[in-house]
Amino acid sequence: MVTSSSSSSSSSSSSSITTTTPNTPRLYFNLTHTTSLVGLAVAAGPLVGLDTEAIHRRTARDPLDVAARRLSDAEYAYLQVR
Questions:
Q1: What are the sequence ranges of the domains in the chain?
Q2: Which of 11, 21, 48, 56 has a C-alpha 20 to 30 A away from that of 36?
């Protein structure tokens, strides 16, 4: 037997699937979409999240400049060493 539970927002859904089979892990998944993209993430462990966004224009800015404004200090530092 398979059971599922879910919660959703306008373009993203987070759910889990469980079975009555012993020793079967709960699967967590997240489904998201935009105009031209669909994303699906599946994990057998903790909750998983995924987001897609439609980008209708390209920026002339350096991507690291954008990252510096939008990411945490730790996330930005990680990008700089790559």
A1: 2-80
A2: 48
Least-confidence region, from 11-20, 31-40, 44-53, 70-79: 11-20
Based on the number of CB atoms within 10 Å of its own CB, is 48 exposed (0-12), middle (13-18) or buried (19 or more)?
Answer: middle
3-state secondary structure of 38: strand
Beta strands (DSSP E) in 1-82 are: 2-8, 12-19, 27-33, 38-43
Give per-residue pLDDT as tens, 42-56.
888 778 888 887 776
> Percent of the chain scored above 90 by pLDDT?
4
Which pair of tokens denotes residue 27? Answer: 């699967």
Q: 25 and 43 in contact (C-beta within 8 Å)?
A: no
| Cα–Cα nearest to 11, from 46, 50, 57 | 50
